[in-house]
Amino acid sequence: xxxxxxxxxxxxxxxxxxxxxxxxxxxxxxxxxxxxxxxxxxxxxxxxxxxxxxxxxxxxxxxxxxxxxxxxxxxxxxxxxxxxxxxxxxxxxxxxxxxxxxxxxxxxxxxxxxxxxxxxxxxxxxxxxxxxxxxxxxxxxxxxxxxxxxxxxxxxxxxxxxxxxxxxxxxxxxxxxxxxxxxxxxxxxxxxxxxxxxxxxxxxxxxxxxxxxxxxxxxxxxxxxxxxxxxxxxxxxxxxxxxxxxxxxxxxxxxxxxxxxxxxxxxxxxxxxxxxxxxxxxxxxxxxxxxxxxxxxxxxxxxxxxxxxxxxxxxxxxxxxxxxxxxxxxxxxxxxxxxxxxxxxxxxxxxxxxxxxxxxxxxxxxxxxxxxxxxxxxxxxxxxxxxxxxxxxxxxxxxxxxxxxxxxxxxxxxxxxxxxxxxxxxxxxxxxxxxxxxxxxxxxxxxxxxxxxxxxxxxxxxxxxxxxxxxxxxxxxxxxxxxxxxxxxxxxxxxxxxxxxxxxxxxxxxxxxx
Length: 514
Ligand code: SF4
Known about the structure:
Layout: H1 3-19, H2 23-35, H3 41-59, E1 69-77, H4 82-98, E2 125-131, E3 135-143, H5 145-148, E4 152-155, E5 158-160, E6 164-166, H6 170-184, E7 192-198, H7 202-212, H8 224-236, E8 253-260, E9 269-275, E10 280-287, E11 293-296, H9 306-316, E12 324-327, H10 333-337, E13 344-353, H11 356-364, E14 375-377, E15 382-385, E16 391-395, H12 405-415, E17 419-422, H13 428-437, E18 440-443, H14 449-455, E19 456-463, E20 473-487, H15 494-507
Parallel strand pairs: 1-2, 7-8, 12-13, 13-14, 14-17, 17-18
Antiparallel strand pairs: 1-3, 3-10, 4-9, 5-6, 7-9, 10-11, 13-20, 15-16, 18-20, 19-20
Helix pairs in contact: 1-4, 2-3, 6-15, 11-12, 12-13
The structure holds iron/sulfur cluster.
Iron/sulfur cluster binds next to helix 5.
């Protein structure tokens, strides 16, 4: 085996997976877009998403800034040295990180220290299997934290909100799957894909669920009962009305794949792996002697070119009456109190990034800059220094905001922050603080890392670099940065509203016959 060539092939696989969404996923996103009426928040979000996919194509840059946890599945002929292959994969991952195709995303679980190259104990995940064929099959999925955190496992029988008892049969499984879509809301960057594993134990059940995400979205399940269940879920889950980003809308689910394995009599697990719209999964076959790529996988069917789609849309789109408010920091309390849930906001000027480490730091220390009237963006960007030592933004979408719930309200009040931007919404503590202090929560489009990177016109400084690139406080100047008010200073939360209405719709499935 030419191991240098194999390493180059793996580098190509990593870059393509990170930057070029597979054909089957593009088709599903396009179909979702066609379902939404012009002028709705869902339509606007999907337009941003398709624009982002196009920009990632053009720039060969990450579709989403969250590299996620890279998982390789490799099948090798008997006799191939798997230790060498693993080393080559590690090298390719480190190289792709250095080139800004992946964000440094591997941290020490105890200290939080970022390794800087996406390597570390247990990362990336590489799973080997031997097979009888004479070539290597290598597949990769980059699954982000926002959607990974929405995975769920059910131990049957159990009681489910809205659906009552889920028993140890196909109907109980049906209820679990519908519930898994409901509980994810928009937090996993819906519309999403789910892989479901029935049976096994807690760990093999989740493995089986993730395994389903390696199936093509267009395949047909050979197991008759599971085929019917997949179709049922696809026909019905969208009735929940959660929609893209949880803004409400026609499409909540883009794909559902279900697998089954045996279990022991005492256990009955249904495990669900949720994947966001930025479903980065590709594969190649590799010549086991030369190490060169023979063939790219997941290539069936048409490839949607979203650049052409955008041109067609521009020719047919009419103006909508969505209210767009421009904000520029420092923002006053009066300006904030005028905003209402549903308003679209365009931000020009300054914002500061801040995620987990910054929020904890600010809760215990003074801020390194004056945050009065300012905007905090929940974002861990991909940054690269150019040869002149200047920082460039490679990807900069929002991260999941709910992680900052314990700190957010207090920090806003302590420093006079007027707006926070993130994705997925926040909880009651933040909502109460927004009302009391005069603040808003703005939901940006999760995964639209290229779109938002393009809005960043300059990187003017950085503080707290000791937390690593994604966690540092970056000082950004933006132009035309668009987001939706989903929590306002009047006690309203779109997230709460959509949760409530989707729970009511979920309850309608309680006694439906499958
Ligand atoms: S699209 Fe959303 S859930 Fe998916 S990787 Fe990006 S931020 Fe995470």
